[in-house]
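User: ok so my PI wants both of these folded by tonight, can you help

Assistant: No problem, let's get them done. Here's the first:
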Amino acid sequence: MTSQEKTFLRIMFQNKIFKTEGQAFEDLFTTIMSHSEKDFQQIKPWGRIGDKHCDGYIENKGIYYQVYAPEDIRKSYTDLIQKISKDFKLLIDLWPDVKSFYFVVNDKYKGVNAEAEQTLKTLKKNYNLNECGFFTSADLERLFFTLEEDIIQSIVGFIPDIQQMIRLDVTILNEVIGFIMNLSIKPISGELKFPDWNDKIVFNNLSDYPASLLNQGSQTLGLLNKYLTTNTFLAEELQNHITGVYNSIKENFREFSIKGDHLFWEILTRCSPKQSQPYQMAVITIMAKYFESCDIFEEPPRGE
């Protein structure tokens, strides 16, 4: 599967997440679980006994799941918190072998609030569970992309021939750049701290100006990392793109020994959709991330 095909499938999957609610989301979850975990058992409501407050379980591991897919989770947190406690108590009464519990929720990539998270932590402690937590849309996406290609396409549909398609309007790089450009500036209390990468800056012959730009870009790394944590496929493809550009420049300009500031500006130029400050500063934030992780530029030998 090519990078473009994965990008298209990811968009198709996320569209499916945004559109599914209630039983449709539960069916999506159980389909993916059934293909990824051979011992997963789906529980369907059956006559007067219903589903006994369990939507699926893995018996030999003692893992039980309950699914909740409201239209808008942000408007349903009061109901969500009450539902977690109530439904779990009903579950534990009817299924005494619960060792781990996951509350599967279609948060539509919006995340869950702290109070709901604390409710599950309390259940874990009170009932001495091995694991107890949320299983969100992002978790389901990660599981989805571990499946075989034919299963993936059977779930979201077959993609057209990429070579005959018009180029996707939203590329991996542009999506992340757009996220960074939409971040608002917030006040920072206390002393401003930069990553500890001075040795790497010196080792790679970067002058003060590129170093200061990397430091400036690093100030939004926390939000970028949080964003990429919930978009693991996006994070993987972004890393591949940046390292690909870096390695391509090094290979193509090997005879000229391009390095230092020249290498910095060449990466920035190639990765910026437009050669204007807002786009370039967003790219510099991305460069700062992979500079810190040593995906781009050379890591100093230990002890230097």
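One down. Here's the second:
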Amino acid sequence: MTRVLTAILTVGLLAVGRPADAALSVLTTTTDLAAIAQAVGGELVDAESLTPGTRDPHFAEARPSMIRKIYGADLLLVVGAQLEIGWLPAALQAGRNARLTPGNPGYLDLSATVRLLDVRTGEISRAMGDVHAAGNPHYWLDPRNGRPVARAIAARLVELDPENAGAYQQRLGAFEQQLDQGLGRWRAAMAPFAGRKFLSYHRSMIYLADAFEFELVGEIEPLPGISPTASHLADLVNGVRADNVAGILIEPFYDPKPAEFVGRQTGAPVIVMPQSVGALPGIATYFDLFDAIVAAFARAGTT
């Protein structure tokens, strides 16, 4: 009898929905998606990321606070391409919110809106490291992808809240205008790095390299998600010297010691690369993120 009552109450709560004048509760799996959703939704939405910008979004723990947020949300925006595969399915199951399950209007996988790089074909095994067969999921680091992502978010907000369609479209237009202005500014600042060679810690900077036309010649990790060995670092030192690598890109949450070792041996500067909104102080919007990235390159110079 208790189980029956619990089930009835759960269904009832899900059916009630939100008050007409309440903001849409939008959950995202990264701070970048939350920043774009808030820009497009404005005061009509309350966008919150399930992971902080200071952490690796591949890994998260389904804490009770996360479960409560999932239970009460109207919309879930995910990066997709298996970025959240290690934690999101369990969190959704525990959250018991039918609106937020794949195939329903409350679930939106943004990886379907962009051209994914590093799509794998053939057999995939754990011996290859933490490989994403569907493609590299770090596509938000190409600012050009902000446009299709924002458009998809706006379209879904209109679907869920058609009465405010005009407001969402107006804010989308403002976002795209600001993005166009930013792209011009960032491309001009990054022009000196076009064609230069860089090393990265994890294979997460390929979209940034594609956007600004610099080259990535290797990673500190021997395989995705695998810590470097001494022999791998020795090989990297030789390669960095031979390729005249301009810098080593590393996210703030990785152990800097391996990158710093290679930098000391070769003279290549280690460039701390904010990978998400909130990764470092002062990065509160999607546009702030690329301003900070460009500033990090500028501080390193081109020599």
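Residues 192 and 302 are 7 Å apart (CA to CA). The chain has two domains: 14-183, 194-272. Good luck tonight!
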